Amino acid sequence: MGSVLGVSRTPVREALQRLEYDGLLDNRPGHSPRVTHLTLEDIDEIYPLIGVLEGLAARLAAPRLTDRDLDRMEELTNQMSRHQRRGEIDKLLRADTEFHAVLHERSQNERLKKIVAELRGQMERFEYFYFSTPKSLRVSVKRHRHLVQVLRRRNASDAQKTLLRQWELGRRGLVEVIRKKTAILEAPAGDKLAEALRDRPGPARASSPRSSVRPAGVEEILTFQSTRSKKQQFINHGGVQ
Questions:
Q1: Cβ atoms within 10 Å, residue 226
Q2: Do 112 and 56 touch, CB atoms closer than 8 A?
Q3: Domain for residue 15, yes or no?
Q4: Residue 197 needs a FRET pair 20 to 30 A away by CA distance; which of 57, 73, 151, 222 works?
């Protein structure tokens, strides 16, 4: 990997250690590093945590947001809408990151910002999977618009409740997407609808009856640019090269 990137072994080793710390890599001694699977248990652990923290960020930020902040968040939502119509998931997620960064910054809580960044880094693969359906994209944009409307009222309690609720709805939506895709992949031969859906390209797909999800094809996420840490993560099906 170092020769491919044109760097020494040290930064590669540090990157692998970081991926392992984030729960994205299984790097046991005596074995080749392997990308961890995504599970429903991971979703149930991460989403409630980040929902509470994002809700707290909204509560702290609401009275401090300026009209310029809110206009910026509205423009980012418009960008998300454009990317949604074009199927540009990478760009949509970058706009989403900037949107939430406004709240994190205005919360004026450095520890909160750091913890949220850690958790959001762990859930980025979930977001790619969730946004593999047009419905999920549309719903996400709609929720961002609603949140901006709530924030314009500067009501801290309402902002917190709204964002907490939205993260819970996002968790439910992601679980639904996973279960539907798992059912499609496990449908018996001869099921014409399932076969058509199986053959249709998409950003991600389920991989086993144990509700475990692998990332998408290599060409889609081999080079994964984290929008928070600016680190490159090289992911392959079942391994890291």
A1: 16
A2: yes
A3: no
A4: 222
- Measured between its terminal Cα atoms, the distance across the chain in Å is 6
Query: Among all chains, which residue has been given the structure tokens 């996973």?
Result: 178
Task: Report residue 156's pLDDT band, with 50, 70 and 90 as the boundaries.
Answer: very high
Which tokens belong to 144?
A: 């961002």
The DSSP call for residue 37 is P
Which CATH number is 214's domain given? 1.20.120.530
**pTM of the predicted protein model:** 0.68
Residue 228: inside a domain, yes or no? yes
d(CA 46, CA 25): 17
DSSP symbol at 23 = T
Q: Does residue 24 sit in helix, strand or coil?
A: coil
pLDDT tens digits, 196-207: 444 444 443 333
Rounded to an integer, the average pLDDT of 102-115 is 96
Residue 28 lies in a domain: no
Output the pLDDT for position 207: 37
Radius of gyration of the chain (CA): 19
The answer to whether residue 81 sits within a structural domain is yes
For 24, 124, 145, the CA distances from 121, given in Å and listed in that order, are 10, 6, 23
Please state, in angstroms and rounded to a whole number, the distance separating the CA atoms of residues 67 and 151: 10
Which residue reads 């990137």 in tokens? 5
DSSP SS3 for 206: strand
Q: What are the residues facing 214 on neighbouring strands?
A: 205
Q: Which of 182, 154, 82, 90 has the alpha carbon at shortest distance from 128?
A: 90
Domain with 68, as residue range(s), is: 36-234
Count up the domains in the chain and report the number. 1
Report the distance separating Cα 84 and Cα 15, nearest Å: 31
